[in-house]
Amino acid sequence: MPTNVAPGPLDALRSDLAPGLLVLAAMLLFAPRLDVPPKYMYDEVYHAYTAGQYAAGNADAYVWDTKAPRSGVAYMWNHPPLGVLMLTGGILLWGDAPFGWRFSSAVFGAAGVFLVYLLGLAITRDRAMAVLAGCLVLVDTLWFSQSRIAMLDIFGTVFAMSALLSLYGYLTSPPDRVAPSLLRTGLFLGLALATKWNAAFLATFTGLIILHRAWGCLRAVRRHSSPEARSALRQHLIWVPISLGVLPALVYLAAYIPFFATGHTWDELVELQRQIFVYHSNLEKLHKYQSRWWQWPLALRPVWYSVTYLGDRVAHTYANGNALLHWAFLPAVLALSVDLWRRSSPALPVLLIGFFGQWLPWALSPRSAFVYHFLPAVPFGAISVAFAAVTLFRRGGIWRFIVAAYLVALVGYFVYFYPIHAHVPISRDAFETRLWFSSWR
Questions:
Q1: Mean of the pLDDT values across residues 150-162?
Q2: How many angstroms separate the CA atoms of 38 and 30, rounded?
Q3: Any residues with CB less than 8 A from the CB of 295 and at least 6 apart, and which?
Q4: Any alpha helices (H) in 150-198, and if so which ranges?
Q5: Which carries the bigger pLDDT value, residue 283 or residue 258?
Q6: Domain containing 257: what range?
Q7: Which residue in 26, 75, 179, 274 is deepest, having the highest Cβ count within 10 Å?
Q8: 47: left (phi over 0), alpha (psi -120 to 50) or beta
Q9: Which of 9, 4, 1 is nearest to 383 (CA)?
């Protein structure tokens, strides 16, 4: 075992500067030119526009049976409102303008890098791996793109990461002292569900892990009814229903406080939930940039967000993963999973839910999907690649050169592709050289 093992992930807040430096680096990367392009791009015509209407107190923006008073935009009602409310916060701070639309996304993107560090420390118990995991997310072009656009995915991902970090706290807590970690898990599950219903995958698998442990407490009482066993069972009987049922439901309803404050009724809320379900159940229409679940870790199909033509130059905004990083996700996750299984680590279910549990269910989804739906799995892929890289580097010899060359290549990839993810004007020939595969067009 490495000598730099930390007693717990939250000790990083007291023991070194790495988390703060990662957040600072993230904001320095995400914030510049955040107002470029100075127009709505892609789903900002729904999300950013609706957030501006929330800020203006427009009651019509919350429901399905109203239309925007101008062309080219529409109200976003087909997801719960929490993500749009996060965008509204940036607009209230900086105005209903591009920087205001995207500010909250940048802040949450930076917060997500911090959470990658904490999750990396929890899963690997190794500070070097945790720091590298945070750095890998910084050079992931998908994370970069979603941290600079007024969409909902970065918010749901950060809440999901927080829920899984809390789940790790639950799994490593004594069975008779699980209330704080269970309540945190329920809180963040509620926040994730109030952002996007995609979090139902996360909530389902997290709930099954918690219920499995609760069942173990019941079996322990049946085998030997010691005071400790009875206390553990009592804790679970009280706090599991609250944390997995009551608290997420209250959080979800709390996200609709502005909905009620603008004059809408309980009956309208119920009908809105039905309309959301119907919308996503029937979202099968073809989209030029939609992709299949198996294409995401291969970075085969990006999403084109925006283009500006400037004479002989062109500025694009694409969303796609750092291919050199994403191609390593699957083998690295499998390697880390085997290591955790051999050590009987409680971090194993956290990793499996975080990566596979938020990715593979999309194989069964009937609705159209896009590469940004892979975003919640990215942090766990990055943690796994960091584990593999540091492990190989510590073997010495030729492995040090290979790992160093790979990490340099990751940074080089990010720098090379930065222009087409950040709307930087380049020549058309330079743009063409960055389309490595026909599926990237």
A1: 98
A2: 16
A3: 301, 371, 439
A4: 153-171, 179-193
A5: 258
A6: 9-440
A7: 26
A8: alpha
A9: 9
Amino acid sitting at position 167: L
- Asked if 339 contacts 322 with a C-beta cutoff of 8 angstroms, the reply is no
State how far the Cα of 419 lies from the Cα of 414, in Å rounded to an integer: 9
Hey, what are 121's tokens?
């420390």
- Is the bond into 37 cis (omega within 30 degrees of 0)? yes
What pLDDT sits at residue 1?
A: 39
Sheet holding 303-310, edge to edge: 303-310, 313-319, 426-427
For residue 4, is it within any domain? no
Q: Which residues pair with 304 in a beta bridge?
A: 318
Kindly report, residue by residue over 337-354, the tens digit of the pLDDT. Answer: 999 999 999 999 999 999
Q: How confident is the model at residue 208 (pLDDT cuts 50, 70, 90)?
A: very high
pLDDT of residue 29: 97
Report residue 128 CA to chain centroid gap.
22
Average pLDDT over residues 302-324: 96
Task: Please tell me the chain's helix, strand, coil percentages from 3-state DSSP, rounded to the nearest 5.
Answer: 70, 5, 30
Answer yes or no: is 217 within a domain. Answer: yes
Residue 284 DSSP symbol: -
**What is the end-to-end Cα distance of the chain in Å, rounded?**
46
- What does the pLDDT read at residue 5? 46
Count: domains in the chain: 1
List, for residues 55-82, the tens digit of each pLDDT value: 999 999 999 999 999 999 999 999 999 9
Distance CA 173, CA 309 (A): 56
* Residue 3, domain member (yes or no): no
Distance, in Å, from the CA atom of 257 to the CA atom of 88, rounded to the nearest integer, reads 14
Per-residue pLDDT tens for 369-426? 999 999 999 999 999 999 999 999 999 999 999 999 999 999 999 999 999 999 999 9
